[in-house]
Amino acid sequence: MMATKLSSTEPGPVYLHELENRQQLDNWLSKQTLRATGREDFWQDVLGYTVSAALLAIHLQPERTRPGQKTEFEMLVSALNDFNILANLISCIDAGASALHEDGSAYLNEVIDYWSVSSPELRARQYRHLLHLSSQKIQTLAASTLRSAG
Q: To which H or E segment does residue 133 belong?
């Protein structure tokens, strides 16, 4: 049985399977701050997970010592602009290099699986729509930071 821990400061059942009656459930629910999540929250979560995945994929890349290799910033912007670049970065990770690489690779493949569920055309359109604006924002922030520092 999968245990789902309930967060509560009151003594009593802390796991879902420990609740014995409706009163305990009602008491626990009355103490929780529940917020409705909508479409916008969902896409913000997807955006956050995908940007995090791109950063992790870049971090787990093998040493990049070839002349002309893109900087991490350039790699991030490229990965956010094109799903295939993100997928390629993930496929280049050596999962056998360390436990971190193995765990990271497993997580990143779940992100790729999420995006791969739909047709290539739909995926490309959704990815481009959601992440292109984010990459533009990152580029703008980076440019303004460089101007103010220089």
A: helix 120-149
What does the pLDDT look like over 13-36, one tens digit per residue? 555 556 666 677 666 566 555 555
Q: How confident is the model at residue 1 (pLDDT cuts 50, 70, 90)?
A: very low
Q: Tokens 């008491």, residue?
A: 27
d(CA 150, CA 131): 28
- Domain coordinates of the chain in residue numbers? 1-34, 39-149
Amino acid found at 69: Q
Q: What are the two backbone dihedrals, phi and then psi, of residue 9, each rounded to the nearest 5 degrees? A: -90, -10
CB 55 within 8 A of CB 135: no
The DSSP code for 3 is -
Q: What is the biggest distance separating any 2 CA atoms in the chain, rounded to whole angstroms? A: 67
What pTM value is reported for the model? Answer: 0.65
Give the whole-angstrom CA distance, residue 150 versus residue 76.
Answer: 23
Q: Helix, strand or coil for residue 15?
A: strand
